[in-house]
Amino acid sequence: MRKDRQQHYNVSKTYSRNFQLKVNKKVELRHIYLMKMDDSDAQKQRLKAAIHYTVGCLCQNIASDCEKQITKQTIAAIAETAFRQCDIFAKDLEAFARHAKRHTVTVDDVKLTARRTTALSNYIQQKSEELALNNQELKEKRKKTAAKRKSKDMEPVEDKEGED
Description:
- The chain has 164 residues and is mostly helical.
- It is 88% helix and 0% strand.
- The protein has 5 helices and no strands.
């Protein structure tokens, strides 16, 4: 009997070791899976959370203004729709830039993406014109300051020649 108990003990001991190894392997594999989870997937989840938070804040503001309530399901649906639309916009922008054999997305690409929505297209056109005006004003200011610096740099040279 003693041998039977010892064998049983050895078998159960082996079984528990194997089970423990299997459990450890499962935990380890899960940990590795989480570690190997693409940074893009993790980033995607963070973006979804940020969009959901922002949509929630916007809905709260609108609900308080209108004295109505918006359900969590509605907020989640709006957030998911917004995320999917942003994903579509991003793919369109990449496609337009790639089609033009560029690696950089330009304002024209953004205008092309927004062309389907009239209000958005008008808004982007207006902002584009404002940016163009601001850039032009900055360039003119830079030219003026560069010209002033250049004239100041030239003056001391002339004074030094006159002193000799």
